[in-house]
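Exercise 3.2. Students should predict the tertiary structure of the chain below and write it as structure tokens, then compare their answer with the key that follows.

Predict this chain's 3D structure.
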Amino acid sequence: MTSSLLGLVSFMRGQAASAEARWTEASLHARQAGDQHDELKVLPWVPLMLCAGPTPSEEGLRRCHEVLLRADGDKKTMASALTVQAVLEASWAASMKRAAPRPVPTTCSTRWR
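Answer key:
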């Protein structure tokens, strides 16, 4: 669980990307060892760091989906991934709205012809 502790240290230092990488590594090590308890202990931290760090929204959404697939019904992991997914979707939608050109105003007479 060294990776998990390093994830915590990175988080405490405000290094979300490093913390996410460490917790992802810790969850994969636990999975490879067949230790579902340890995997599900660190997996909920991964989406939280995706939201707090520099990960682009689209990448974060993909990773949240991966975490949901690995959650195996664990409520804490699912809650973490779904909450972050909602935040990232809202962020992505807001950025798309800002990037979209504004429609040209029309009058009622031209709109209904």
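Discussion points: The chain has seven helices and no strands. Residues 105-113 have pLDDT under 50 and may be disordered.
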